[in-house]
TrEMBL record:
Residues 60-69 have a biased composition (Basic and acidic residues). Pathway: Glycan metabolism. Pfam families: Glyco_transf_61 (PF04577). Residues 206-368 form the Glycosyltransferase 61 catalytic domain. It comes from Platanthera guangdongensis. Residues 60-83 are annotated as: Disordered. It is a single-pass type II membrane protein. Its main location: Golgi. The keyword tRNA processing does not apply. The keyword rRNA-binding does not apply. This is Glycosyltransferase 61 catalytic domain-containing protein. It is found in: Golgi apparatus membrane. InterPro entries: Glyco_transf_61_cat, Glycosyltransferase_61.
Amino acid sequence: MKAWRISMWRDGSKICNFLIILFLVLSIFILNRMKSQYCPSPYGKAEELLKLEKPRTGEKNQLTVERRQSSIQEDEDDEEENNANIVHEPICQELNKRSDTCDARGDVRIQSINHTIFINSTKKEWKIKPYARKGDDMGALSHVSEWSLKPFVQVPNCTLKQDIPAVIFSINGYTGNMFHDFTDVIIPLFITTHQFHGRVQLLVTDTKPWWANKYKLILNQLSTHEPIDLAKDDSETIRCFSRVITGLHFHKELGVDSSKSPTGYSIVDFKVLLRKACRLERAAAVLSSVRKPRLLIISRNHSRSFVNEKGIVGMAAGLGFDVVVGEAGVSTDVSKFARLVNSADVLMGVHGAGLTNMVFLPSGAVVIQIVPYGGLEWLARETFMKPSRELELKYLEYRIQEEESTLIDQYSREDPVLRDPERVHKKGWNAMKTVYLEKQNVRPRLDRLKNTLMEALKLLRAT
Ligand SMILES: *[C@@H]1O[C@H](CO)[C@@H](O)[C@H](O)[C@H]1NC(C)=O
Ligand SMILES: *[C@@H]1O[C@H](CO)[C@@H](O)[C@H](O)[C@H]1NC(C)=O
Ligand SMILES: *[C@@H]1O[C@H](CO)[C@@H](O)[C@H](O)[C@H]1NC(C)=O
Ligand SMILES: *[C@@H]1O[C@H](CO)[C@@H](O)[C@H](O)[C@H]1NC(C)=O
């Protein structure tokens, strides 16, 4: 190795130098091309779909580091490091690759009009977008306002003072899609605020008035105070607290990591809270001789719908199920629908936000996720399979085969859409989403699906 190098340099050949440089430039170019081709951004513009990052083995660390550069900007200025009056605790922390939070204590003053939080116990300046989709700058975060945390310099006087902690969070990102409502906001809000037993002020930024209204019953369980819409503050308003948390703690999709939550609570505590909020009667799915097991089919209208819904209903009724078909839209009364879900023993639906309703199921109930055609198993796993286990539910999956997908009516059998879904995935999230999530409806074969439903009955009886 060494000899080779020495002799090469001894030649002193300019051609050699040129070749090395050319080689390096080419490698960088090729690596870049490979990166953009094989690691496309999973994020697109559409808001009404579940957004998830396809796990890429071996690349995780690098990705995390890249993402970390973005959200928190810390002022470099450290000249007054020795000033004894100033507490130098890190106000803002990078929790993980999905969320950052800032926890300011002392004399904390919020000036909503220009998204500024003044803190007496710091001399550093920080910036944060309080929505748990860190890194998704072009997507969710493009609608989320940035807040500045600043030291006391020409600080305005308080006009309102509250003697409880406050939590600032945005509800603008991808909300309106039930999966995102829960995984991006409601569960992170639970993780962040459950420790205060209701003695906390929720401060909402980037308001969608209907959103806070829709989830009012759940928010009321988290805080005994009405949420405040910061957008309604006028230029004079200065809200003062002794503690303000900006940005919510995120652990995992639809989940809580009890080893990381402030006082060790878990997703099971969240379920208890939901039962209270929505007045859900059943804690556990128990079969009885006086009541048929209930199957709730989550129906979708516009994409990924069941073409043969009637046939499915008939087949399931034949197996002894009390079958109910439900469709939850944006305007659905959450607690009413939650009570319907809670009355079910089996929840079945095609992969989509509606399956988020599983949070309302009694423990021991069965979730059947119908996975559309097209290599979507990873998406199914990350969004609903993993969370279902932690929610104390049983999980079955029914994978749509080529001949059960309406894609065969639209594409020739030789088309890569049917032959080689991986190739479509490599074109990026939007290409994948358009074909497999938006253009596809399903017609599961009744005899195959029957086996899955019988399996569900078996699981219920095993409880
Ligand atoms: C910040 O304000 C709090 C509450 O008024 C006070 O107890 C604390 O000493 C102040 N800290 C500094 C560094 O001024
Ligand atoms: C803030 O309050 C202090 C003392 O109450 C007062 O002296 C000062 O003028 C006030 N500042 C402003 C800008 O109103
Ligand atoms: C913040 O808002 C106030 C009131 O509108 C304004 O006087 C002030 O200049 C603003 N500060 C900054 C830094 O924009
Ligand atoms: C679903 O479609 C049916 C018939 O096409 C229609 O009557 C119904 O209003 C739709 N529901 C929603 C929520 O769009």
